[in-house]
Fold this sequence. Notes:
By secondary structure, this protein is α+β, with helices and mostly antiparallel strands. Helix content is 51%, strand content 26%. A hairpin with a 6-residue loop joins strand 3 and strand 4. The radius of gyration is 31 Å and the shape is rod-shaped.
Amino acid sequence: MDHRSCLFLVSLLAACGVMANVPALEPAGKKIKLVSEADKPLDCEPVADVAGTARAEDEKEALKGAKNDIRNKAGEYQANFVVVDTQRTRNAGTGPYKEVFVGGKAMQCVTPEMEAQKEKEEAEAKERAEREAMERERQEELERAKQEAEAQDEDEEE
């Protein structure tokens, strides 16, 4: 291969190096809510530093991809919130692509709604257990009454 062919090939590869990269939102990422520090719930524990990046010609599409990426990564830590503290956009190379970076902390938070749901589930479980206990007692009482009736029938037959 001659020098000009090599130079052309290297130039072509360099130009192709900057391409669109927009991550899709995965199931675990769908459970993650992005918030600012001011909007995060009060009861939170940080679980990891996370970041997301994406590249696209459309800046909005790149931002969406970066947010998908950070949510997907937070989902790997079983977080339910990400407090976003950094967001940057820059040109990727000399082409039309924009690259977006989003950084923050993956958090495990308990919201008032989650507490209310937990209390509701606990109350329902307690009520269900009480109903089951009452049903067992009723069945036991019916079984005792049946045994007493059978014993009384046997006494009358004798």
